[in-house]
Every structure is written in C-alpha cells, then in structure tokens.
Amino acid sequence: MAKKRWSDLTGSQRAGTIVGSAVQFALAAAAWSDLANRPAKLVNGKKAVWAVVIAVNFVGPISYFLLGRRAHR
By the 8 A CB rule, do 41 and 64 touch? Predict the structure, then answer.
C-alpha cells in the first residue's frame, strides 16, 4: 500500500487528522501538567516512567489518568 500524502486526503480525512492530533496533544499536555504538579507520593510508580508512557498516543495519557494517580488525601 502506497503512503498517502496530505494532498491525497479528502477534506473529511484532513479534518479528522487535525482533530485527532489536537485531542492527542491536549491529553498529553494535561497529563504531563498534572504529573509535573502532583507530588511523587500521589503517583503510582515512578514519575519518570509515567512521563515516557504519556508520550504513547492516546493510550499513555488515558492510562496515566486511570492508573497512574492516587487520590488526594
């Protein structure tokens, strides 16, 4: 299968790509911001590992929000 270029995509495909990218970047930014401001004792595991995991597409930030944070006490 040949790679598609941006110019080969339909308007809907371009819009979907832009929206998906924006959502990905927003999730990652929110997760990294939360991680940076959260005390280490309120993070499940090492903060450095979570910082790398967050970079993995949608899975990383969602995993951090679901599994990486401990409740404030």
Answer: no
Q: 55 in helix, strand or coil?
A: coil
Q: State both tokens at 57.
A: 């597409």
pTM equals 0.83
Which residues lie across from 43 on neighbouring strands? Answer: 69
| CA–CA distance, 54 with 35 (Å, rounded to integer) | 10
40-62 pLDDT per residue, tens? 999 999 999 999 999 998 999 99
Q: Return mean pLDDT, the chain.
A: 93
CB atoms within 10 A of CB 55: 11
The Cα diameter of the chain in Å comes to 53
Q: Give, in degrees to the nearest 5, the angle at Cα 61 between 59 and 63.
A: 60
Task: Please name the residue that has the structure tokens 């005390």.
Answer: 39
